[in-house]
């Protein structure tokens, strides 16, 4: 990195140590953006509908709870804290107490007698049974992996910088708040974006590795069926609001060293005041949950065996009167003082096989693994 880039990284890492609420993010094809709240606390919300008419940077969990609220950063600074006395000074005051997340994840370090793969296989068997009985059409099984911190001095900001270069086709973010702790992620999946009444969401599902660095041209029935479930759900939710979206046929897209099938949905919204209500309908999509939505949502929470926290929630900039860019929080990790908690998952159908699904989660976790030497 250049001296200027190192200076920015040091400033961002200092904000984390000082427990500031901020977000740093890069939309594909655009320059990185920064937002920080220096006055008051980030707003904590407990219903997605409360995002109606709100603006700011949002990080929302898979399941909203007292432990994992929706957090809305309402920034009063939107430039990197460098070069001006007023912004530099804010780096050096405030509390450096541990965040809530540092305590929440202590349970992660309890060792298990089973290997991660054995535990995954056991849970896979629990998930495949109701699918084969046709109780559900699709389920998403995820897992987390805790990696003790190796060398001292890991820089979350340097990892963000590395990710923006490595994952040019993904949304890359680094976010810290006292309520959530520090999260870093790279995700290809838009949940809602738009401005001036023109809005966009995607159905993204199915996974294959790149083939000699290129997008695969052949997709099996399992991957196509998995993607169609997500498309069907989005179509149905928008139609329930009287929206008839313009929809594209699924095409392969790149996400790191992996590829997924994606369909775009574009639609007008005459009233931008109810984005929270729309997000409530879209989240969680079958890409991270299953079908039927409510039944699979409860099944996952009862049987998956770990707390997803902010993994498979959504994250990004919300601005009803300007431009919003919200993404599903995939390929992410929670950065703790002495460890990293990585998350990955995959869609399971009645035709799925445990070994291939395990290998898919391994491949997805590599997205974050490759950043840990930053």
Report what the structure shows.
The protein contains 9 helices and 18 strands. The protein is of the alpha+beta class and 374 residues long. It has one domain: Anthranilate synthase, CATH 3.60.120. Strands 3, 4, 5, 9, 10, 11, 12, 13, 15 and 16 form a 10-stranded antiparallel sheet that branches. An 8-stranded antiparallel sheet has the order 2-1-7-8-17-18-6-14, with helices on both faces. Helix 1 crosses helix 5. The longest helix has 20 residues. The chain is globular, with a radius of gyration of 20 Å.
In percent, how helical is the residue content? 25-40%
- CATH level-1 class: Alpha Beta
The helix count comes to: 9
Task: Give start-end ranges of low-pLDDT stretches.
Answer: 83-112
Stated plainly, the CATH topology is called Anthranilate synthase
Tell me the β content.
25-35%
Keywords:
ten-stranded antiparallel beta sheet; 18 strands; Anthranilate synthase; eight-stranded antiparallel beta sheet
Please outline what is shown here.
The chain has helices at residues 3-17, 85-89, 100-104, 116-132, 156-166, 221-240, 275-282, 293-303, 354-369, and strands at residues 21-26, 33-37, 43-45, 56-60, 70-73, 138-148, 171-177, 181-187, 190-195, 198-209, 246-247, 251-255, 258-268, 290-291, 314-318, 323-328, 332-335, 339-348.
Sequence-ordered SSE layout with sheet pairings:
Blueprint: H1 3-17, E1 21-26, E2 33-37, E3 43-45, E4 56-60, E5 70-73, H2 85-89, H3 100-104, H4 116-132, E6 138-148, H5 156-166, E7 171-177, E8 181-187, E9 190-195, E10 198-209, H6 221-240, E11 246-247, E12 251-255, E13 258-268, H7 275-282, E14 290-291, H8 293-303, E15 314-318, E16 323-328, E17 332-335, E18 339-348, H9 354-369
Antiparallel strand pairs: 1-2, 1-7, 3-5, 4-5, 4-15, 6-14, 6-18, 7-8, 8-17, 9-10, 9-16, 10-13, 11-13, 12-13, 15-16, 17-18
């Amino acid at each position: 990195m250049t001296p200027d880039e190192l200076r920015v990284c040091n400033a961002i890492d200092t904000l984390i140590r000082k427990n500031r609420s901020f977000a740093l993010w890069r939309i594909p094809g655009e320059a990185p953006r920064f937002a920080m709240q220096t006055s008051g606390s980030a707003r904590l919300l407990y219903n997605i509908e409360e995002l109606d008419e709100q603006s700011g940077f949002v990080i929302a969990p898979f399941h909203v709870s007292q432990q994992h609220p929706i957090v809305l950063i309402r920034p009063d600074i939107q430039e990197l804290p460098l070069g001006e006395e007023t912004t530099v000074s804010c780096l050096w005051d405030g509390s450096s107490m541990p965040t809530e997340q540092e305590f929440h994840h202590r349970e992660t370090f309890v060792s298990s007698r089973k290997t991660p793969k054995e535990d995954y296989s056991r849970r896979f068997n629990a998930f495949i049974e109701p699918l084969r009985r046709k109780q559900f059409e699709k389920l998403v099984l995820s897992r987390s992996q805790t990696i003790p911190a190796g060398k001292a001095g890991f820089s979350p900001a340097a990892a963000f910088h590395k990710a923006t270069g490595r994952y040019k086709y993904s949304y890359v973010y680094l976010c810290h708040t006292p309520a959530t702790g520090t999260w870093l992620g790279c995700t290809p999946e838009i949940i809602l974006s738009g401005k001036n009444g023109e809005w966009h969401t995607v159905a993204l599902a199915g996974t294959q590795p790149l083939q000699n660095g290129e997008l695969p041209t052949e997709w099996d029935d399992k991957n196509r069926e998995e993607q169609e479930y997500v498309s069907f759900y989005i179509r149905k939710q928008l139609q329930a609001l009287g929206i008839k979206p313009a929809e594209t046929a699924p095409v392969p897209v790149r996400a790191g060293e992996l590829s997924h099938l994606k369909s775009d949905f574009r639609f007008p919204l005459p009233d931008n005041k109810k984005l929270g209500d729309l997000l409530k309908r879209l989240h969680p999509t079958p890409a991270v949950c299953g079908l039927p939505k409510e039944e699979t949502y409860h099944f996952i929470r009862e049987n998956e065996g770990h707390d997803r926290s902010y993994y498979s929630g959504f994250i990004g900039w919300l601005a009803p009167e300007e431009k919003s860019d919200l993404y599903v929080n995939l390929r992410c990790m929670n950065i703790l003082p002495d460890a990293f908690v990585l998350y990955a998952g995959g869609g399971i159908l009645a035709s799925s096989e445990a070994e291939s699904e395990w290998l898919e989660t391994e491949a997805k976790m590599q997205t974050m693994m490759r950043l840990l030497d930053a």
